[in-house]
């Protein structure tokens, strides 16, 4: 099966970088990324590559190389579906906010809309690829929708979950640990394997059945998140016993069965995937009556919420049990460094808690625009937009954010934070000057020598 034209529905954090790399590595394939959001498509098409809607190291260069050669961004979804032999679905699958499964199950509304759209428009055979992370057995639903159109078009459905992490998306896409393709049709699987084969060695391309592929994605994210909750649980114990979580992480990480990666204690994991996917896994397990399995994985989320909460509780108790009217400077709003994505960022929940205690919050993040900070807080509906506007201020310069603050809370591990003039920062703060390092990126001895009251996670 020769593929000459591909389209991807959903120009987001997954669809954008993934298709850009596919286009770069397959110059003979025309790749079109479509989205219902005109503003987002316009941003992908802007002349100025520093204004792309998504910030990822290395992305702008690849878009610059391929855009309008074999990579196109458009809102004409029907045309792209009609012309393509292979269609990726990469729309968002948020946790349901209504009805059955509210707060737990994935909302498959957008995926179903895409399937119906493809069914309506397709006149020739298509390979439909699930790129979005979906509950196990979703392919069955997509198949049923596609096959009941009665227009004699043959659809093959593949599951091809994305394992890229934000902030390192391009690196992860260029050198993936593995590519996973689940499906029934051997031809369809090989057609997709050929596209990845342009740059990924065949032995790293795993072929499985559809359900294994869907479940592997949920399981990978659950295992990764579990590691963070595990080390974060130990971090709390460290704080009570004078053990040092970094030393513990190093010691256990040298056991080759455990491994050194993903053992950084933090204010808690964020991002669009970990919480959503675990909730989804818990929901699926419960729906099969597997309550012990569900409870086991749910605890990863319980611990993560606890970690975020205890960070802000500690900040408040250290500041003499009140932050009312005090300026607290937050360094970082993104859920991790090297991305402008803020979904489920711990900063949002820490801020919400501090605002409920009437703190004044000053935010500086090198990549997150001011509007996103307010949108994230307003979305919680804890207080009115006017109240958020009056209690929170954003800055494009860290020193202005910190000026006259009682405390600094480090939310994101941006590299630039390590290079600041911390003596100057000490001078412009109220005394005692507190730092709460939610990412363990600063050196305790250096900070104490300057005069800071410094505390970090798990030490
Ligand atoms: C999302 C999910 O977060 C992830 O779990 C899943 O694996 C893939 O989809 P992401 O790319 O980060 O990942 O989402 P987002 O940045 O929100 O992009 C989704 C895009 O789909 C948005 O631009 C949205 O406008 C678009 N969309 C959504 C459509 O084009 N059509 C729809 O019907 C719904
Ligand atoms: C994750 C998975 O890593 C990726 O494979 C999947 O495709 C999508 O979900 P992502 O959420 O983009 O990727 O970033 P990741 O690097 O996994 O970080 C998630 C969160 O965990 C961040 O808030 C990060 O700061 C936090 N984290 C990560 C820790 O607190 N400690 C660690 O040791 C690692």
Automatic annotation (TrEMBL):
Which pathway does the protein contribute to? Nucleotide-sugar biosynthesis; UDP-alpha-D-glucuronate biosynthesis; UDP-alpha-D-glucuronate from UDP-alpha-D-glucose: step 1/1
Q: What's the catalysed reaction? A: UDP-alpha-D-glucose + 2 NAD(+) + H2O = UDP-alpha-D-glucuronate + 2 NADH + 3 H(+)
A Pfam family this chain is assigned to: UDPG_MGDP_dh_C
As recorded in UniProt, its EC number(s) are: 1.1.1.22
| SMART domains on file | UDPG_MGDP_dh_C
Give every UDP-glucose/GDP-mannose dehydrogenase C-terminal domain span: 329-444
Query: Sorted alphabetically, which InterPro entries does this protein's record hold?
Result: 6-PGluconate_DH-like_C_sf (IPR008927), NAD(P)-bd_dom_sf (IPR036291), UDP-Glc/GDP-Man (IPR017476), UDP-Glc/GDP-Man_DH_C (IPR014027), UDP-Glc/GDP-Man_DH_C_sf (IPR036220), UDP-Glc/GDP-Man_DH_dimer (IPR014026), UDP-Glc/GDP-Man_DH_N (IPR001732), UDPglc_DH_euk (IPR028356)
Q: Please, which domain of life does this record's source organism belong to?
A: Bacteria
Query: Mind listing the UniProt keywords for this protein, alphabetically?
Result: NAD, Oxidoreductase
| Classification via PANTHER family | UDP-GLUCOSE 6-DEHYDROGENASE (PTHR11374:SF3), UDP-GLUCOSE DEHYDROGENASE/UDP-MANNAC DEHYDROGENASE (PTHR11374)
Give the UniProt family note.
Answer: Belongs to the UDP-glucose/GDP-mannose dehydrogenase family.
Protein name (database record): UDP-glucose 6-dehydrogenase
Can you name the source organism? Winogradskyella vincentii
């Amino acid at each position: 099966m020769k593929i000459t034209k591909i389209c991807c529905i959903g120009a987001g954090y997954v669809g954008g970088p993934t298709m850009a790399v596919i286009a770069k590595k397959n110059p003979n394939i025309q790749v079109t990324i479509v989205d219902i959001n005109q503003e987002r498509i316009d941003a992908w098409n802007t002349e100025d590559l520093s204004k792309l809607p998504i910030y990822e190291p290395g992305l702008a260069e690849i878009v610059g190389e391929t855009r309008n050669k074999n990579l196109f961004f458009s809102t004409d979804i029907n045309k792209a579906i009609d012309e393509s032999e292979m269609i990726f679905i990469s729309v968002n699958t948020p946790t349901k906010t209504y009805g059955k499964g509210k707060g737990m199950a994935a909302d498959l509304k957008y995926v179903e809309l895409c399937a119906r759209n493809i069914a309506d428009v397709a006149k020739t055979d298509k390979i439909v690829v699930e790129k979005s992370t979906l509950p196990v057995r979703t392919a069955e639903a997509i198949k049923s929708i596609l096959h009941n159109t009665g227009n004699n078009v043959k659809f093959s459905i593949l599951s091809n979950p994305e394992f890229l992490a934000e902030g390192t998306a391009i690196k992860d896409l260029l050198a993936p640990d593995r590519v996973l393709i689940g499906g029934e049709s051997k031809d369809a699987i090989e057609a997709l394997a050929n596209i990845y084969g342009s740059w990924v060695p065949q032995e790293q391309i795993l072929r499985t059945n559809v359900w294994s592929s869907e479940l592997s994605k949920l399981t990978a994210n659950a295992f990764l998140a579990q590691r963070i909750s595990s080390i974060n649980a130990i971090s709390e114990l460290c704080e009570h016993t004078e053990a040092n979580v970094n030393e513990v992480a190093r010691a256990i990480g040298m056991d080759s069965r455990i491994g050194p990666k993903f053992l950084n204690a933090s204010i808690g994991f964020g991002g669009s995937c970990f919480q959503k996917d675990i909730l989804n896994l818990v929901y699926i397990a419960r729906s099969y009556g597997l309550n012990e399995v569900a409870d086991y994985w749910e605890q990863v989320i319980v611990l993560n919420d606890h970690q975020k909460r205890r960070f802000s509780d500690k900040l408040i108790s250290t500041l003499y049990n009140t932050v009312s009217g005090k300026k607290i400077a937050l360094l970082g709003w993104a859920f991790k460094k090297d991305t402008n994505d803020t979904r489920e960022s711990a900063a949002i929940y820490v801020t919400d808690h501090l605002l409920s205690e009437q703190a004044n919050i000053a935010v500086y993040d090198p990549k997150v625009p001011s509007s996103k900070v307010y949108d994230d807080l307003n979305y919680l509906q804890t207080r009115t937009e006017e109240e958020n506007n009056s209690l929170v201020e954003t800055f494009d310069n860290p020193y202005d954010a910190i000026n006259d603050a009682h405390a600094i809370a480090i939310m994101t591990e941006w590299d630039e934070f390590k290079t600041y003039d911390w003596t100057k920062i000490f001078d412009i703060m109220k005394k005692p000057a507190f730092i709460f390092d939610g990412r363990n990126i600063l050196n305790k001895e250096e900070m104490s020598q300057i005069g800071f009251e410094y505390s970090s996670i798990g030490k």
